[in-house]
User: Which sequence fits this backbone?
């Protein structure tokens, strides 16, 4: 059974996780600079939209249904249930991560949007990074990280990763098909989510470890 002191990121994985977080953050910054005050999509954006449009033409209701994983209310309910489960299983660090990381990711997305000022549909709809993608992928990343570090069977880990990726692709297709976002907005939102969750997990582990060392120092001093 996992204990309250279980790390979010195993000690041997801290460096690669930090690298992944940094690379994802760099992707967001690079794309943000590229799309600053852009009013039309890139050729890549248009090509992806064209493919999605051809496959889902006349399927507006289906596309709207595919957006369900990005629904804020649904995500709040899922996170609340997950937090209660993690508290019951004595994994407070995961519970904290599940609340803090998505909120932080969405907050950063909200700050970046007016700064980058990329719009879609010839309107004032700020598009980059996709906030819906950011919130959804942040929650999915928390789930994946939890399963990967829980010591469960590799088949369950693989199933969780594939399932999370599948949910993300379905929702992204809905966002693109409804033309709420360009595919590059989705990529930016996903990278922002992963970067934020991993960085937050590292920060929580660092803070918890520092507190544990401080307590040991105090106890040792009292014993002396």
Assistant:
């Amino acid at each position: 059974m996992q204990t309250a002191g279980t790390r979010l990121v195993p000690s041997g994985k801290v460096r690669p996780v930090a690298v992944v977080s940094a690379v994802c953050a760099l992707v967001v910054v690079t794309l943000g600079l590229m799309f600053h005050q852009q009013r039309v999509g890139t050729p890549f954006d248009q090509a992806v939209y064209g493919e999605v449009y051809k496959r889902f033409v006349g399927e507006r209701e289906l596309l709207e249904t595919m957006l369900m994983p990005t629904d804020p209310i649904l995500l709040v309910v899922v996170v609340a249930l997950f937090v209660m489960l993690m508290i019951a299983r004595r994994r407070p660090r995961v519970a904290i991560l599940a609340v803090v990381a998505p909120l932080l990711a969405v907050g950063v997305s909200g700050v970046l949007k007016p700064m980058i000022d990329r719009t879609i549909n010839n309107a004032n709809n700020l598009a980059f990074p996709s906030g819906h993608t950011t919130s959804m992928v942040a929650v999915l990343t928390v789930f994946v990280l939890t399963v990967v570090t829980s010591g469960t069977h590799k088949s369950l880990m693989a199933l969780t990763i594939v399932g999370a990726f599948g949910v993300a692709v379905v929702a992204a297709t809905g966002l693109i098909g409804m033309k709420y976002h360009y595919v590059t907005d989705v990529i930016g939102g996903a990278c922002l989510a992963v970067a934020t969750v991993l960085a937050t997990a590292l920060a929580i582990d660092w803070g918890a470890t520092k507190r544990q060392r401080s307590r040991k120092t105090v106890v040792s001093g009292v014993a002396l």
Summary: The longest helix spans residues 183-223. The mean pLDDT is 89. The first strand starts at residue 119 and ends at 120. The two ends are 34 Å apart (CA to CA).
